[in-house]
Amino acid sequence: MSHVVASSCHIFSGCGFPAPSINDFYFTPIFKIGSVGFGKPGLLIVLSTIIVVTFFWFAFHSPKLVPRGVQNVGELGILFVRDQILRPQLGKKGDNWLPFLVTMFFFIWIANIWGIIPILYFPPMSKFGYPVFLAGMVWLIYMGLGFRKQGFRGYWRTLLIPSGSPWWILPLLVPIEFLSNVLVRPFTLSVRLFANMLAGHVLLLVFALATWYLLTASIGLLFSATSFIVLILVTGLEVLVQALQAFIFTILTATYISGAYEAH
Amino acid sequence: MQHLVHLHHLLYVAAGAKHLVLATGAATPGSSSGTPVWYHIINLGALTYGLAAIGPGVGIGLIFGRTIESIARQPEAAGRVTGLMWIGFALTESLALIGIAVPFFIK
User: Fold this and answer.
1) Most buried pick, A182, A227, B16, B87, via CB within 10 A?
2) Beta-carbon separation of A187 and B101 below 8 A
3) B100 to chain A: nearest residue by CA?
């Protein structure tokens, strides 16, 4: 928001570079229910939910044996998640997790794509609450599923004791494994998505603001043009990162679920 | 210029984060009206995070490199190897991600 004020700010006019800050991730709420505000990030999350739901509804509300039109695209997406994410991690027995993983992949991907859509330009996953919710859900699923499939003691053994470790190393190994498998997993799962989206958005902001700030009838024009080219290149990089983060989030979810199925 | 990290601030790293807070806060008293003290620390944190990211960077490079190598040697093991790769990747990157989170906790 502060950059709207700084928009008349150019180099050699006496004002400093309006560097992006954490304030760029806070928006004035559109409306408020009690103390809970509903702003741009929430709006984008609702939009991505609607897009995912309507897309898959249109693709599969009356599926044909020989797919046509949008069903082709939908099947392409589902087969990608099945063959690249689900089958390598879970095998055939995990096929009933396919709807969950497909939804998760496309929801995160669409939500990330808002980061490069003109005018909107904001990845809602750079608000920490959304990745935390997703990672919390994954944590509940793999803990609950593990206790159901392997029993209470069995799953703790899988989580805490790596197979083949000698007894005398266990006092050292068990706390580390507890930390890594129970506490750090949901933390890194959420922070990975959050940090990548935050950093990507800041990177875009730096070059977008620099392009505007340096845009003057001076030598600054040259640097402005350079900055604009870099902005385009960084946007290309962001396209890659957005898809990659959705992929990594989903594949790690599949990995954790497969750990709940059997001792590895 | 006062936002740049001076070399003598780095010496305070050994003396602990608390002294660092005092040092960076005291070095720029009342600078750029209303800028909170943590702003100066975040800059130093950015430098420190760069250092902290070296290890995970090398580690992740090794993990993916060795995975590609082993799949090239034995393509039929690709499924099992990539599964292990993701677990190792998540563990290694967790160090870098903890590095991102630490400045939010230590003020």
Assistant:
1) A227
2) yes
3) A195
The pLDDT-based confidence of B33 (bands split at 50, 70, 90) is low
Torsional sign, CA A178, A183, A186, A188: negative
Adjacent-strand bridge partners of A31: A38
> Measured between alpha carbons, how far is A123 from B32 in angstroms, rounded to an integer?
31
Locate the domains of chain B by residue range: 1-37, 53-107
Whether B83 sits inside 8 A of A191 (CB atoms) is no
What percent of chain A lies above the pLDDT cut of 90?
Answer: 67
Is the dihedral angle over the CA atoms A179, B53, B28, A15 positive or is it negative? Answer: negative
Which helix (H) or strand (E) segment holds residue A31: the answer is strand A31-33
pTM above 0.90, yes or no: no
* CB pair distance less than 8 Å for B90 and A187: no
CATH number for domain B53-107, candidates 1.10.260.40, 3.30.70.660, 1.20.20.10, 3.30.420.40: 1.20.20.10
Instruction: Using CB atoms, pick whichever of A185, A191, A255 lies closest to residue B86.
Output: A255
Gyration radius (Cα) of chain A, Å: 23
User: What backbone phi and psi angles, to 5 degrees, belong to A167?
Assistant: -65, -30
Q: Flag whether pLDDT at B27 surpasses 60.
A: no
Nearest beta carbon to residue B87 from set A195, A248, A255: A255
Interface test with B, best of A184, A194, A202 (most B CBs within 10 A): A184
Q: How many CB pairs under 8 A join A and B?
A: 37
Of A85, A129, A121, nearest to A253 by C-alpha is A85
Cross-chain residue pair A255–B97, CB shorter than 8 Å: no
Q: Which string of b and e fits A224-239 if b means at least 16 CB within 10 Å? A: beebbeebeebbeebe
Residue B102 has pLDDT above 70, yes or no: yes
